[in-house]
Amino acid sequence: MSTPRLFSLSRKEGWNQYVNTPPRQRPEKLTLAQIAALSEDAREDYNNLRHDWHANFGIIQTPQLAAIHGELDQIVASNQQDGDRIRSAAVIDALPGLGKTTIANQYGRTYDRQQRRRLGPVTDEGHERVPVFRVGLTSNTTLRTLNRMICEFYGHPARDRANAAALASHALDCVLSCETRLGIIDDIHFIDLDRKDGLAVSNHLKWLANELPVTFIYVGVGLAERRFFADGLTGKNTILAQTARRWTRLGVDPFHLTSDQGRQHWRKLIKATERQLVLAEHRPGMLTDLAGYLFERTSGHIGSYFTLLMRGCYRAIRTETEALNRDVLDQVRLDEASEQARQQLAAALTRGTLSTETEAAS
C-alpha cells in the first residue's frame, strides 16, 4: 500500500528526501476483469496506489521548464567568482499556477545531485555538504524570521533563541561550513515595501547576496507589476532599484493557442501526460481529442491542467468509468480563475478564433 511522502522542503532533511528519493514505480495497468477479480481490500490498495501515482507521477519537461533551466544553468555557471565578487541572482516571476516553484525546486534538485556526485557528501573540513538551501517567505516575514528560516533549514541549535544579528551570523556559518552554492527563496512577493519590516528584508536580501558565496533564485508572483524591477526608483525604494540591477527576471508564460508552435506545445503536453495514466479503459488519443476542451477548462495554466487530470483520474476510478472523458471531467470543479475564464474560451473555440489544430494538421 502506498503512502504519501510527507516532508518539508524548508528543512534540510525534507530537502534531502526530495533530492534523493528514487522516482515512484508506475502501477501495473489492469483490465476491468482483473480489477473485478480482486478482493475488496486488494482493490482498495490498488486504487490507492493509482491515486498516489496520478498525484505524483513526475515532472513533464515543458518548453517553459526547459527554457528557464537553460537560463539558470547560464547564470549559475557564470557565478563561479571568488568570494570577493558580487553574484547576480535569478528571479522567476509569473502569475499563480504556472509552475514557477516547481521549476525552481526541480533545478535545485538537479544541481544538488550534481554537486554531491562531483564533490562528495562531506566537505574537506568534515562537514556535511549541503549544496542547496531553500526557504519560503510568509506574509509577516521580518529580518529576524528570514534569518531564522535559513538557520532552521540547517537545523542550527540556536535558531529559536538568538536575535536577528546573531541569526544572520549563524546562517552565514552554515552556508560556509556546508559549502552551499545555491539558495532558493520562494514567495518574495510577500515583501511589503510600504512597511518598515519589508524594507529591512529587502535590504537583507542585498546583504545576503553580498556576503554569501551563493547564487540566489528568487520566486514570486507578479513582481514586475509591483515594480520590483522598476528603474529610477527613489526615496525609500532606492535600495530595491539597486538590488534589481543584479536580478535577471525569468518569466513563465501559460500555454497558448495563438501560434502553430503554441498549439504544438499544448498537444505535446497532453500526449506526454496521457502516457502516464493508469486507467483500465483509457486509450491513447482520448485526451488529445479533448485538446480544445482541456484548454477551455484550464486557460493553458499547467497547475490547473494537472489539477483537472488528478481529480478526473480520482473520479474515473471511484465511479469505475476507468477513463478520462468529457463526462468525467465535467464533474470536476477547478479553481475560480479557470472557471471564470471558461465561458469566454469556449466561445472563442466554438467561433474558431482559437484552435488546437496546427496548420499541418488542418
Strand content: 5-15%
The CATH C-level class name of the largest domain: Alpha Beta
CATH superfamily of the largest domain: P-loop containing nucleotide triphosphate hydrolases
What's the alpha carbon Rg, rounded to whole Å? 23 Å
Spatially, the strands of the biggest sheet line up as 2-3-4-1-5
Termini separation comes to 46 Å
Q: Which ranges are low-confidence, i.e. pLDDT below 50, for 5 or more consecutive residues?
A: none
Instruction: Find the count of extended strands (DSSP E, 2+ residues).
Output: 5
> What name does the CATH topology of the largest domain carry?
Rossmann fold
Continuous helix count: 14
Q: Per the principal axes of the C-alpha atoms, what is the gross shape?
A: globular
Q: Please identify, by name, the CATH architecture of the largest domain.
A: 3-Layer(aba) Sandwich
Mean pLDDT: 88
The count of domains is 2
Largest sheet: 5 strands, parallel
Mind sketching the topology for me?
Blueprint: H1 12-20, H2 32-37, H3 40-56, H4 63-77, E1 89-94, H5 100-119, E2 132-136, H6 143-154, H7 164-177, E3 182-186, H8 196-211, E4 215-221, H9 238-244, E5 247-251, H10 260-274, H11 291-298, H12 302-318, H13 326-329, H14 336-351
Parallel strand pairs: 1-4, 1-5, 2-3, 3-4
Helix pairs in contact: 1-5, 3-12, 4-5, 6-7, 11-12, 11-14
